[in-house]
Every structure is written in structure tokens, then in C-alpha cells.
Amino acid sequence: MAGIFSSHVTSTTNLVLVRNQTCGSWRWPAVETLNAVESVGINLKDLSTLALGWSAYYSELLRRSRRDVTYARRCYDDTQNSPSPDCQLYITQQIPYTTEENVPCPFDPGLFDNATLWFKADKLLSPLGCVTQHQFCNPNLPAYSNCTDWSSIAQIPPAIKSLKYRPLQSSVQALMYQAAWNTSFDIVDVLSNEVLLASQSYHDPPAPLPSNQWVLEVKNIHATMLASLQSLMLAHVSGPSNPNSRQYMDPASTPDEQTLCTSQMATRNDYASFSILGIAMILALGGVVIIIGLSIELITRTIRKSTNRGTYRQLGWDVSEVLQLQRLAYEGHGMGNWRGDADSVPITAREDRFRTPVWRDNGEEKAIAMEVGKMDSPLIREIQSRRRASSAAPS
To answer: Residue 101 in contact with residue 215, Cβ under 8 Å?
Structure first.
């Protein structure tokens, strides 16, 4: 056991493999509703089920989005010297990214000249527009054709066909595509002003916002989108936080999808990681070594006796055993009637008597004869009487 805990098969890290029986994807309520309306004979019960599914999906989405906002502000803030303990949820605390400031505006200056008037502001405001583009790659293809062009998430599916993904890669890509789609539209739509840093600033009296507030807001939204990607990949395996919502999910059906359900890792403070293979090898090899160590003498002795070879070597081996050395010590003092001089365990005659170490009196040796385990004898009482008299004599 000491070998197990002192080796590298156990670790103080809290990396664990996530598994859940409800691993799968949410059904798309909007698509189901559209198909149901177009079908013939739809009833009220079906619409009620779809409404409940949409409500469960939206509740989970709102709960997860708020958690992603909190994670992004705590764990994607490079100004903090010591990250929060809550940042240990994912294997990688942050998805790497780069930031460029003071770049040209991506929109055509005349984009809104002839645009339809969708809203009319009743207060002075400065609208903020963002461009989100995505790119999928296959590292197994040549460098000149292993990635799609940067485009919107809606234009990705037709371009993915050229990447020639294997079945397992296709399952990973589908999961990442779904996560990217949700991230692109859900953060701002669901949270509204909750996603803004300015909504968390309270001053009395009110203080003006810094001139680069819009830069801080864009960075915060981008960090929240990255955190959402991380949480969506984990939520695919862990399932919804509300057990009643699991009925609105489609479980993994294909072997590749099921492989993804057993390949997601996360960190937990209430678990420890260890290697089953490493522990099994230590126990197996250690057990073999122990068995060999306990039986090597018996095996060697049996082989030598059966082949009549190495007799003197075996005799020297047996004589040097601890019990044989003890026998020689007793025989040197004339104690015991021994037999089995060439065996691994020598024995004496039944009810054989030994002598204890001698007591010297005026240079004469007097043997104290007693039976093993019997301490009451005339000679013992004489020794005890002399010791008491010696301790009582004045110095």
C-alpha cells in the first residue's frame, strides 16, 4: 500500500472524468414548434409539452449564462494577482486569445445610410455593433486547405464538408458548432444589461463612466463568450442542473457521441485522481515478488533434493537459517535434544527442558534448571532472596 501512495499513480490534483447518464443535447424547441404547427392534427397536449420544454431550456440557459458572466469577471481578469478558487472548475482556466485595439471599424461607413429605421431613441445613446466570425479546421489536412474561411456561424455548415472530418471529429465539430451558435446569440439576448460592467457600478452621487468604457464592455462580452464555450462543453456531459429538465434532452445515440460523453474532464475539490492501470500493475507485480520471496527457498530445496544436485550448498543455506543458528547456540550450552539438523525448522524432543543464562556466585557457575515457562523453582527463590538481602544491607 505504501508503494501505491508513494508512486505517481496517485496525485494530489483534482482532475476527474465527468460521466452522467443524461449526457446529450437539448432539443430545439423552436424547430419542434415549427414542425408541430405545420403538421396535421396537432393537439393542445403537444403544444403544452413544447412550451414546457422551451421554459426548461430558457431557465437553464439563463442560469448558465449568469454563471458564465461571473466566471468571466473572476477568471478572465488578468489584473488579479491571485485567481479565485472558483476558477478551478475547468482544466484550462482561460481559452487563450489576443486583443488588438485601435483597429479600423469593420463596418462600411454607408452601411446605415439607407437602412430601415428599426427603432427610435428617446434618449441620447451611442449604439455598439460587433462582428463575430468563426473558423473550423482539420489539422490532418494540408495547411493550405485545412481550415474554413472566417465567416458567420450560419455560413459554417456548408464549408465544413470540405474538411473531411472522421466520424469522431464530426461529433466533436457538431458539439463545438452548437456551443458557438449558442454563445454568439444567447449571451446578450438572454442577459440583456446584466452582461454590462457598467450595470455593476454604483456611485452616490453617480459618477461618469471612463472614456474607454465601451472597450471594457467588449472585452467583458468576449470573455463571457469564451467562458460560455467552456461551460457548454461541460454541460453537454453533466446535463441540466434541474433533474426535471432532463426529459427534454436527446441522449447520445451514436458510438462517437457516446465516446464524447466519457471523455470530458473537469476539476473537483472533493475527488482525487489515480491510475487504475498503475495500481493494478503495482499490486500484481508486488504480489508476484512477495510470493516468489516466500517460496524461493522451498522451490530451490525441492529442486535440489529431486535432482540430487547442490546438496552441500543447500546444507550450508539451511544451517545459516535463523532457527538453525538458534539451535547451534543452545547446543553450544548443552541445552536441548535436537533433531532436524539439516531441516529448515529444527525441533526438540517433547517436554524437553532448557537452562536459563547462568548465575555466577564466587566464580562458580550454577545452572538454573527450569521448565520452559515455569519460573517457580528453589534456585530462583534463592536468587531472589540474595538480591533482597543485598539491597537491604547498609552501604
So the answer is: yes
Q: Across the chain, how many H-helices and E-strands are there?
A: 11, 10
Q: What residues make up the domain containing 363?
A: 300-392
- pLDDT tens readout for residues 142-191: 888 889 999 888 888 888 888 989 888 888 888 888 888 877 667 777 88
Per-residue pLDDT tens digits for 54-74:
788 888 888 888 888 888 888
One domain, residues 196 and 252: yes
Q: Please say whether the beta carbons of 148 and 137 come within 8 A.
A: yes
The DSSP letter of residue 133 is -
Looking up cell 429605421 gives 117
Give Cα separations from 87 to 71, 80, 105, 212, 237 (angstroms): 7, 12, 34, 27, 19
| Residue 147, φ and ψ in degrees, nearest 5 | -140, 150
**12 in a domain, yes or no?**
no
Same domain, 253 and 334: no
Backbone angles phi, psi at 266, to 5 degrees: -150, 180
- The total of structural domains in the chain comes to 2
